[in-house]
Amino acid sequence: MRTKEEMIREIEDRNKARAEAGLPLLSVAKEVEKISKAESRQHFCGWCEAHQDQRDKITEEVLATFRKERGDPTWVPRALLNGAGAYGARVDEKMRQIWEEERSEAQAAPASRNGPRVRANR
After folding, report:
1. Alpha-carbon separation of residue 15 from 6, 33, 78 (angstroms)
2. Closest-CA residue to 92 (of 32, 45, 31)
3. List of residues 6+ apart from 43 with CB closer than 8 A
4. Residue 37 CB coordination number (10 Å)
5. Residues in CB range of 96: below 8 A, 6 or more apart
6. Is the Cβ–Cβ distance between 70 and 82 less than 8 Å?
7. d(Cα 5, Cα 15) in Å, to the nearest integer?
8. What mean pLDDT is reported for the chain?
9. DSSP string across 48-96
10. pLDDT for 106
11. In contact, 82 and 53? CB cutoff 8 Å
């Protein structure tokens, strides 16, 4: 994923071209948010594909929960009106929780691997 600074430079370049063409300028803040969301969504989808076995397990767990809640051991998600939308959303929610936990751990890990940082005296 790109840094915020890289996104801002790209948006500023696009705004320069837009100004030269007489087009309205883009909001840097809104564009950074859109780019960040799109890249995050793309990264999450790739992560889900790489963790399909985990998604399958969660899908089975959610299916069992839905069947129990409905009192129907044969229930299957077929259409939005019979609960398929909520079923899929719950699977995605659980996958996103795991993904976010892994991202948080990965971001915290580099600082803790080498112990606390010590500032050298000058």
Report:
1. 14, 16, 46
2. 45
3. 1
4. 10
5. 44
6. no
7. 15
8. 87
9. HHHTHHHHHHHHHHHHHHHHHHHT-TT----SGGGTHHHHHHHHHHHHH
10. 83
11. no
User: What letter represents residue 113's amino acid?
Assistant: R
> Which single residue is written with the structure tokens 């801002």?
8
Structure tokens at 18: 């837009």
Give the pLDDT of residue 108: 84
Question: Is 72:35 a contact under the CB 8 Å cutoff?
Answer: no
Structure tokens, 20: 């030269």
Position 116 scores a pLDDT of 47
**Residue extents of the structural domains in the chain:** 1-50, 51-122
- Taking the C-alpha atoms of 27, 38, 105 and 108 in order, what is their torsion angle to the nearest 10 degrees? -30
Residue appearing with tokens 């915290």 = 108
Predicted confidence pLDDT, tens digits, the chain (122 residues): 789 999 999 999 999 999 999 999 999 999 999 999 999 999 999 999 999 999 999 999 999 999 999 899 998 888 766 677 888 899 999 999 999 999 888 888 765 555 444 444 43
